[in-house]
Amino acid sequence: MPSATALKQAREPKPLPAPNADFYQIEDTLSAEERAILTKVHDFMETRVAPIINDYWVRDAFPFELIEPLKELNIGGLNVGDYSSKLKGLVAMEMSRVDPSFTTFFGVHTGLAMGTIALLGSEEQRQKWLPPMARLEMIGCFGLTEPLVGSGTGGGLLTTAKREGDTWILNGEKKWIGNAPWCDVSIIWARDLDDNQVKGFIVENKTTPGFSVAKIENKMALKVVQNGLITMKNCRVPEANRLQNANSFRDTAHVLRETRSGVGWMSTGVQMGAYEAAVKYTQQRMQFGKPIASFQMIQDLIAKMLANVTACQALMFRLEELHGEGKLLDQHASLAKAFTTQRMRETVAWAREVHGANGIIVDNNVGRLFADAEALYSYEGTFQMQNLIVGKAATGFSAFV
């Protein structure tokens, strides 16, 4: 005869598994030091960002009060320091699991702005700009996209640069530039009128006459990160602020290869957040006298979401192995960006679906992630442009116009 204790335990419901999107235990591949860094980021996002981010998203505002506690994590130099590319990717993934807007702010600053200076600046420029930027005492942005030039940046920028002695005169506009309305420095890409080549400049936003920024309003995605329309009218930039190793669009492409990998990690993180929110909701939501997580059709969607997440994690993991081996090519980054953002669109749609009507409000987070996914799908190069890069590598023919 079973004991009374055994009978009682048999009658009591088993505890439900906590939502966990790391199904193949990717994080376990990190070293103890790297896991400690990732844990700090996780705790920061859960305790400081998650409780307030929906309110800021609704108000289309940035939580400036988070910059000081972010400094305490000491990760401002992560993308230019001696850390594995895998750790950098997992940090972006972990941030995006809670809020991709915050990741975009951080990635634009550390990956695009600081990364450009690290890759293409002189040693003197690196020593001058990177330490205060790593301490988050100075925030940067990256000005490539223009109002009339998006996917066609490789074919020619309308923003121009003209050298006059030891000064460059910049004229033109940049659009959709994250952090631009409030940051300190901008990496500006412009076409040199003398040789028709693309060159890069470090522009000090607040002290350069003729440099102005208007905040882009009424966005439906990534509402927390502040995007700007930059206008430059005869902006005078010293030769000392020209990126000394940025002399053509090919140099710009080196930076974009790195950041497209980052978007792959972000897209994976967004899926993780949507999946975990969906699992938690279905475990608690009651219909017909039982949790909807027990329904076959719900479990089918949960399984498909988890498959998408896990496939993207595995793809990104291998991509970072290639990165670490010095084998990362444009087509590798493009395939990752295209695949993960397409799967992300599916995953967030399924997560919204299992929430029913509750999925269209931000309170349960999936409505915000659903909207934010649309921006990730398009920025850093559209899905179609990434596929053309991959197609050229696979066939040997260029289909670009």
From TrEMBL:
Which species is the source of this protein?
Mesorhizobium sangaii
| EC number per UniProt | 1.3.8.6
Domain Acyl-CoA dehydrogenase/oxidase C-terminal: where? 254-393
GO BP annotations, alphabetical order = fatty acid beta-oxidation
* Keyword Acetylation found: no
MF terms (GO), sorted A to Z: flavin adenine dinucleotide binding; glutaryl-CoA dehydrogenase activity
Query: Which keywords are on file for this protein?
Result: FAD, Flavoprotein, Oxidoreductase
Organism classification, top ranks?
A: Bacteria, Pseudomonadati, Pseudomonadota, Alphaproteobacteria, Hyphomicrobiales
Looking at the record, the residues that make up the Acyl-CoA dehydrogenase/oxidase N-terminal domain are 31-136
Q: Which Pfam families match?
A: Acyl-CoA_dh_1, Acyl-CoA_dh_M, Acyl-CoA_dh_N
Q: What is this protein called?
A: Glutaryl-CoA dehydrogenase
Needs which cofactor?
FAD
Q: From what superkingdom does this record's organism come? A: Bacteria
